[in-house]
Specification:
Number of domains: 2
Number of strands: 14
Keywords: Signal
Shape: globular
Pfam family, one: PEP-CTERM
Largest sheet: 6 strands, antiparallel
Helix content: 10-25%
Low-confidence stretches: 8-16, 220-224
Organism: Mariniblastus fucicola
Number of helices: 3
Strand order of the largest sheet: 3-2-7-12-9-10
InterPro entries: Ice-binding_C
Protein name: Ice-binding protein C-terminal domain-containing protein
């Protein structure tokens, strides 16, 4: 009877202190596009107005990245349901096509003097466009850009492999940045989206959506210890 009481009390406490699942929404704090061999500029600074991804059928390749600040989320043990919202900012040259997305390990501060570039050899699609400019790239998957109307929002659903998820969790737990890079998936795509410094009306910077599992509070560890102690007591009887 005493054992059953201890066990039930422990289970009740464990339910009270189970890990919490949270939906997170982060708005991009910085974005940039890499055009030919340089960071695209506007009025003497990094151009954050547009998040363009262009194949080289118009004579140059463009890829873009968006940064998301995770400070304030707190310690997490898992990430699920990752997606990004991009608002179309269309131009006369906008054209349908494929996109590829990556999580980059190099989240350095980028200015107009940065050495980032795109790779001119190979197919100029996917990770080959970026090369080693932003460290290791973890694939998030692909998507399709279809021209509709300016300010229409496209949602791209991502999947992290185990290594990418481990890196993302470490970034969140240290309050670091998550840097998402979008590259052409084919040579014909001319995707034109709004950047972090959007000049659209309404303003519509990239948004990252995901679900996290918070690290259990320290009291949960105590509850687990209580359950173990109850099991020990039972064995002693």
């Amino acid at each position: 009877m005493k054992f059953n009481l201890v066990r039930l009390s422990a289970i009740a406490l464990l339910l009270c202190f189970s890990a919490q699942v949270n939906a997170e929404t982060l708005t991009s704090v910085f974005s940039a596009q890499v055009e030919e061999d340089e960071i695209d500029a506007f009025s003497g600074d990094v151009d954050q107005a547009f998040f363009n991804v262009q194949g080289d059928d118009d004579q140059f390749t463009v890829y873009s990245f968006a940064d998301f600040d995770t400070a304030g989320i707190g310690a997490v043990s898992d990430i699920a349901g990752l997606s990004m919202d991009l608002a179309q900012s269309n131009a006369a040259f906008s054209a349908d096509g494929a996109l590829e997305f990556f999580l980059a390990t190099d989240t350095r501060v980028v200015d107009l003097n940065d050495t980032a570039r795109y790779i001119t050899d190979g197919d100029n699609v996917g990770s080959e466009v970026v090369g080693s400019a932003f460290g290791t790239l973890y694939s998030l998957g692909s998507g399709t850009y279809t021209v509709t109307n300016t300010a229409d929002v496209d949602t791209f659903n991502f999947t992290l492999d185990s290594a990418g998820k481990a890196f993302a969790i470490s970034q969140i737990n240290s309050g670091g940045l998550l840097r998402i890079i979008a590259t052409p998936g084919d040579l014909g795509v001319q995707a034109t989206y709004s950047g972090a410094g959007s000049i659209l009306d309404p303003v519509a910077p990239p948004v990252l959506n995901f679900t996290t599992t918070a690290v259990p509070e320290p009291s949960s560890a105590a509850v687990l210890g209580l359950i173990a102690f109850a099991g020990f007591c039972r064995r002693r009887r």
